[in-house]
């Protein structure tokens, strides 16, 4: 599954949230909206759908908690839709950042095969060098090891960019939606705990209580303060991931230069040079 597939899955999830909000605004019952939008067959690849499975459960939990507490679910869905759109864009930025180094790596990995073919066209059999010569065995082992390390290193750098660090803000937005229609904070938190789990709610409950104290001290609407803080935290998380994406293209050049280029040298250049020396008789003259 490629970054492009994952981006399509995030876009599809964002579109479902936006579509559900539009249908509820038009007056359709929530049960009909859920069955029409979220229970419909997915057109994205199954592997890409699995990448967003956890967030689909998050949407379902937020939906159920909102209905139970009496809070409008549209506020939460719009916040999630904006987040998922941003995540889809991040996936595309990762794909763009890795395109150049991936192509360079593929070219470098094909050069040893091209070198062997050129050597064969010149009458040299460098394949025997890898199996009948101690230096050849060392070159083969070290070349394969360098390619494997470079592949593992590159994948680790790409996986280091984690969209899981982007806050979804589900708990805060459900509380905000409830506050705007007169639902008590404790009612929203109890519903969220039931449908999302105590661990998920506990990570944000202290922050909500601190903002509640702050808003009551200064006479500010808690809903506006909480929504602003949640939006800021989400945007900061997205900015951090985008910064990592911008640095990824340069970081991927490190395994290319440290592993793939030396692998080309030991798998292609060294065998050809050794065969040229052997065929020219220089080694016998020196001996």
Give descriptors for this structure.
287 residues; mainly alpha; 13 helices; elongated
How is this fold's topology laid out?
Elements (H helix, E strand, L loop, with lengths): L2 H23 L4 H8 L8 H6 L1 H17 L4 H48 L5 H6 L1 H26 L10 H11 L4 H12 L1 H21 L3 H30 L1 H28 L1 H5 L1
Helix pairs in contact: 1-2, 1-5, 4-8, 4-9, 5-8, 5-11, 5-12, 7-12, 8-9, 8-11, 9-10
Short account of what is shown:
This protein has 287 residues and is mainly alpha-helical. It contains 13 helices and no strands.
Describe it for me?
With 287 residues, the chain is an all-alpha fold. The protein has one domain. 84% of the residues lie in helices and 0% in strands. The protein contains 13 helices and no strands. It has helices at residues 3-25, 30-37, 46-51, 53-69, 74-121, 127-132, 134-159, 170-180, 185-196, 198-218, 222-251, 253-280, 282-286. Helix 8 runs antiparallel to helix 9 (185-196).
């Amino acid at each position: 599954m490629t970054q492009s597939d994952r981006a399509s899955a995030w876009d599809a999830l964002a579109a479902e949230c936006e579509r559900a909000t539009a249908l509820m605004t038009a007056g359709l019952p929530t049960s009909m909206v859920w069955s029409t939008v979220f229970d419909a067959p997915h057109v994205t690849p199954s592997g890409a759908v699995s990448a967003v499975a956890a967030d689909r459960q998050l949407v379902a939990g937020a939906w159920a908690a909102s209905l139970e507490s009496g809070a409008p679910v549209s506020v939460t869905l719009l916040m999630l839709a904006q987040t998922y759109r941003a995540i889809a864009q991040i996936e595309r930025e990762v794909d763009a950042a890795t395109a150049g180094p991936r192509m360079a790596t593929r070219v470098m990995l094909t050069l040893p095969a091209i070198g062997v073919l050129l050597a064969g066209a010149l009458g040299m059999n460098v394949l025997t060098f890898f199996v009948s010569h101690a230096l050849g065995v060392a070159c083969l082992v070290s070349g394969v090891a360098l390619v494997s390390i470079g592949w593992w290193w590159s994948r680790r750098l790409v996986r280091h960019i984690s969209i899981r660090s982007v806050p979804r803000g589900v708990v805060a937005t459900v509380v905000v939606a409830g506050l705007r229609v007169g639902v008590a904070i404790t009612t929203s938190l109890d519903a969220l705990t039931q449908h999302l789990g105590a661990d998920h709610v506990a990570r944000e409950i202290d922050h909500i209580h601190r903002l509640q104290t702050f808003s009551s001290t200064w006479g500010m609407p808690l809903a506006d303060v909480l929504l602003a803080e949640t939006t800021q935290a989400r945007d900061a998380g997205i900015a951090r991931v985008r910064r990592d994406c911008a640095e990824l293209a340069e970081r991927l050049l490190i395994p290319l230069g440290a592993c793939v280029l030396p692998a080309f040298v030991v798998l292609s250049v060294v065998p050809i040079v050794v065969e040229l020396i052997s065929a020219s008789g220089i080694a016998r003259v020196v001996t």
